[in-house]
Amino acid sequence: MGEDDGTSAGRRALRWYSELILVALVFAAALVLHGSLDLEPGRVLYESIAVFFCASDTQLGDGRTAAALWAVRCAAPLSIAAAVVDGLWKTVLRVADSLGPTMDRVGPACRDHVVVVGVGQTGRWLCHWLKQEFPKQAVVAVDQNAADPGVEQLRGAGVPVIIGDARDVRTLVRANVGMAKEMYLVVSDDLVNISAALIADELPGLSTDFVVWTQVAEPRLREGLVARLHDQRTRRMEPFSSYDFAAGLLVDRELAALGPGNAVVVAGLGKFGGAVLRALLAHDWTDDAAPKLVALDVRDLPKTTGPTWYTDYMPPSGEPVPPSFACCDLRGTGAEELLEDLGRRGLEVLFVLCTDDDEANLQASLRLAERVRAHGRHSDVRLFTRLFRWPKGIDDSQVLEGIQPVHVSELVREALQERIEARRAMRKAADPAGAGQVGGRGW
User: Fold this and answer.
1) Residue 205, by phi and psi: left (phi above 0), alpha (psi -120 to 50) or beta?
2) Measured CA distances, 161 to 80, 133, 148, 154, 341 (Å)
3) What CA–CA distance (Å, rounded) separates 421 from 176?
4) Number of neighbouring beta carbons within 10 Å of residue 220
5) What is the predicted pLDDT for the residue at 55?
6) N or C: fewer beta carbons within 10 Å in the chain?
7) Residue 19 CB-half CA count within 13 A
């Protein structure tokens, strides 16, 4: 505990026990004054206690000592009364605090609520969306970083935010997870999410339909977790990847109608790029007429991991045609040369730029769009650019025709919304009488 924490604890103790300290000081003054009168020790103690009950000997002392004793006799009953009133008031406050939610904890009266762990972009959106769509259901957020701007933003919107580690049972108890209906773990660290989910699953008194949506971005980790949960027949944890949700939505909307006359280039195999490639490989193409898939990355994956580098992106079942691979840096000319090569083969190209650097994606898109325009291939090439935020220093007027921004955050929100609504609809269908209500309140 640091020096500041010790000072703060001392001030809290002073605030809570100030009246008792005052009573102790009055008693000490009474002992000193009676002791100065050469009384027997027993008599000193008796008279010092008697001042609090207006029963002390008023004939003791003279001069200044008598005046001081009269002051103590007046202060003693008042200090006792103040201590009693203050104690009763603080008891009322503690009871009220334990029964109702505040901005840093929720009480046992809060039940059938939703707990969101993580106040990043996804966590904040979840809190706002749940409050908007299900206004009668309480939403509680948890985050370890009290300085995160999202904490004050959510508290300003009326969402209690518990500051603490979700892997600590005490934090989960403060959020009253044991009485919650759902929990969303959307921290950026997969292991934190998994650990918190396993700890929450062991809490006593959990509802039978309690579910923990657990974000696990790493595919192998997620698949292993799903297999283990299936073996243990545990239905509370629902592992998911927001990147896979977003990539699946992009493929279903924009790329599902492609055929052998098309080529899809996935440039950048980071979290989102890898998810796009997995969604493309897992997609059920009509009549096996899959487009040509090309993965592009600055890392030479076939050289570092072997010719079967693509197995990390293959779906659990099925054997799709492996994608081709091109090793190049988007800041160079390799992407433009690849685009021209595919054009010479007579293929219509969909270029998905999805590295983890938004500015690099946009700058590469601008160069590719210039090349497309110079060769008059507007109808043959479509450019998709992954963006989380609009990069600084880039004016939106610089975006040329033919570049379609892919706002990953919006795709994540839409995909999560669809799955949450589908899950709740299934629950309502299974229990029409109770699933649509939350502790007597409409969902």
Assistant:
1) left
2) 38, 19, 11, 7, 54
3) 24
4) 9
5) 73
6) N
7) 15
